[in-house]
Amino acid sequence: MRARVKRRVWTGASALMLAASATAEIPTPPPRPDDMPSPVVETPLPPPRPDELQPPSSEASPAPAFPPSRPQDLPPPQAGSPPAEPPIAASPPLNERPEDPAACDALLAGGTVAATRIAPISDQNGCGVSAPVSLEAVILADKRRVDIEPHPVLRCDLAAEASRWIAQDVIPAIEDGKSRVARISGVGGYECRARNREPGGHLSEHARGDAMDVTTIVFADGHVFTLASRSNDLTAAKSLRDSACARFSTVLGPGADAAHESHVHVDLEPRRNGGKICQWDLR
Ligand SMILES: [Zn+2]
Question: pLDDT tens digit string along 121-147?
């Protein structure tokens, strides 16, 4: 009897332990295989992919965005320190045609102008004229003298072209037989300054003696012809503009900009392919 009971008790306890051990061993195997493969697969592959994808995307979008924003951000600090900047910006070589002393000899010996050769000019910021003349008057074919006032300082080839324009085109176009032209007034020539006197702007052709401004033409009877007027006789005004644009590479008058509403500017600045600027509204 006792032996049977002991057997039953032992048998029951062992059965419980077997059952418990069996249920405890089943869940452990699954977690191990799940942990093992996951770190191996995730570690090598994912990292290289995001590294390769980010560079091209980051270079493509920020690259065009940053360069434009940087130059726009930089000018303000430069503009904030104007005292360190020269009044005229260092400009590229505007006038590539060298001055020819022979042009001065021909001008002064030709009998078509009253002019005086003056000393070479060499100012700051690249301003200067190596062979300048002071143009005092234009001598017409009939030997009449048309004074130029004030006397502009010009390089010789421009002085020659300007005197031909005045004698051959301007005066024949505006003299109507009633009164003759006495003088050209409000004339400008050499001046060391930037275009339109804008601080920091490029050097004006005036700074090389290669530009002339004309404001009015005064007749012997006192009446005045204002070149920039929009109420001039249209035929005469058109003749002045067209002849100027044929002779000079730059003609700026009314309509060109605010700086040229009061006078007409002409110069011989060379341009690519012989290009010209002809801006002079007649009406
Ligand atoms: Zn001018």
Answer: 999 999 999 999 999 999 999 999 999
Q: Ligand 1: distance of its center to the CA of 195 in Å?
A: 8
Separation of CA 118 and ligand 1 centre (Å): 21
Q: How far is the CA of 172 from the centre of ligand 1 (A)?
A: 23
Considering only residues 181 and 98, tell me which one the structure prediction assigns the higher pLDDT: 181
Nearest to 162 by CA among 240, 105, 94: 240
**What is the distance between the alpha carbons of residues 38 and 41, in angstroms, rounded to a whole number?**
5
Cα 212 to ligand 1 centroid, rounded to whole Å: 6
Whether residue 196 is contained in a domain is answered as yes
Beta-sheet pairing, 211-214 with 216-219: unpaired
Residue 43 included in any domain = no
* Full-model pTM: 0.68
Residue 145 covered by a domain:
yes
- Ligand 1 centroid to 96 CA: how many Å? 19
Specify the number of domains making up the chain: 1
Q: What is the pLDDT of residues 189-237, one digit of tens each?
A: 999 999 989 888 899 999 999 999 999 999 999 999 999 999 999 999 9
268 alpha carbon – ligand 1 mean position (Å): 11
Report strand pairing: 264-267 vs 211-214: antiparallel
Q: Which domain holds residue 165?
A: 101-279
In a domain, 242, yes or no: yes
**Helices assigned H by DSSP within 120-165:** 156-164
What kind and span of H or E run contains 219? strand 216-219
Q: 280 alpha carbon to ligand 1 midpoint, in Å?
A: 13
Residue 176 has a pLDDT of 87
Ligand 1 centroid vs 215 CA: distance in angstroms? 10
